[in-house]
Structures are given as structure tokens and as C-alpha cells.
Amino acid sequence: MEAFLSSTLGVAITEIGDKTQLLALFLAARFAQKNAIVAGIFVATLLNHLVSASLGVWLAQFVSPEMVKWIVGGSFIAVGLWLLLPDKDDNPDSKWLKYGAFGATVVLFFLAEIGDKTQIATVLLAAKYQALFMVVAGSVLGLMLANVPVVYLGEMLMKKIPAKAVRIAACVLFCVLGLVTLAGRGIALG
């Protein structure tokens, strides 16, 4: 349950103000089919985070528990500090928009998640907890919790949520996770 809750909270907070959240806002402004956008976000995130978490679990099998502890703990701190940098507002490539609300969302969201903070967080959480299903379920839920309101409520929410304060809170959360991981005696791999 800890893997699920940590993944949900970590990804939800990390996603606020992220480029994929801005992408969700763009898609919601472009397409009237909000349910299709939400479904596209879910499918893209599920596929991307399933691959990411599988990679994290697989990598942890080849590294000693002590080494996983240092890699994951240090990486959590690095991701936390990375969160202090605001994302650039990359304009989605309009060639994907011809596929409609669902198709464009799946493709653009999947591509935007590659190398994204939430994808890296999912790899790290899976390596730490070795609980593929719980990490994927939590990370997908966290991403959906952060993006579904943006699709439906859009600009109103973006004006009321101070992105800088959220980035600082997410930084603190990931740095604390990193320090807690480093203070531990290792991660059980069995």
C-alpha cells in the first residue's frame, strides 16, 4: 500500500505545472470531446508508466540492495531539485491533431511523457518498492488526479494554483523520499 500511496502522491504533485499538464490544457482548449481527452491521457499514461515501472523493477534485479538504495535515494533528491526548474511551454506539433481528440492525446501525451519527471519518478518508485502493479496504479492515478481537473476546468485552475509553490512542495517531497531511502538499510529485492 505504501508503494501505491507514494506513487499517487509523488506523481500527482510532480505533475502540477508540468509540460504534460500544459499539454492537457492545450488539448482541452483545442477539442470539445473532454471524455476522449481524458481517455487518451489514461491510455498514454498507462502504457508509458507500465514500461517505466517494468524498467525500474528489472534494473533493481541486477543491482545490489545497497546500490539500489544509493541510486534511488540520490535520484529522488536529483528529481526533487529538478522540479524547481519550470517546464518550457512546448507547442504540440499540429500534425498529430488530425487524429482527433483521443488519437492526438494518446500520441502527444505518450511522447511528452518520455523523459518527463513523472516517468523518471515512476522508474525510481518501481525500483524502490519492487511492486510493479501498485506503482503503475498509483502513478497513473496521480497523473489522472492532476490532469483530469485541468481538462474539465482548464484555465480557471491554472490561474488559482501557484506553480512555484507546487514545484517547491514537490521538491521537498522528493528530497524527503530520497533522504528516507538513503537512511534505510537497503531495499528488499525478494
Strand and helix map with partners:
Blueprint: H1 2-15, H2 19-30, H3 34-61, H4 65-82, H5 100-113, H6 117-129, H7 132-153, H8 155-160, H9 163-183
In words, what does this structure look like?
- With 190 residues, the chain is mainly alpha-helical.
- The protein has one domain (2-183).
- Helices cover 78% and strands 0% of the residues.
- It is globular.
- The protein starts with a helix and ends in a 7-residue tail after the last helix.
- The model is unreliable at 185-190 (pLDDT under 50).
- It is a multi-pass membrane protein.
- Its main location: membrane.
- Keywords: Membrane, Transmembrane, Transmembrane helix.
- Choose one word for the global shape: globular
- Count all strands and give the number: 0
Helix content, binned percent: over 70%
Please give the domain count.
1
What is the straight-line distance between the termini? Answer: 17 Å
Total helical elements:
9
Question: What distinguishing features does this structure have?
Answer:
190 residues; mainly alpha; globular; membrane; GDT1-like
Quick description:
It is built from nine helices and no strands. It has 190 residues and is mostly helical.
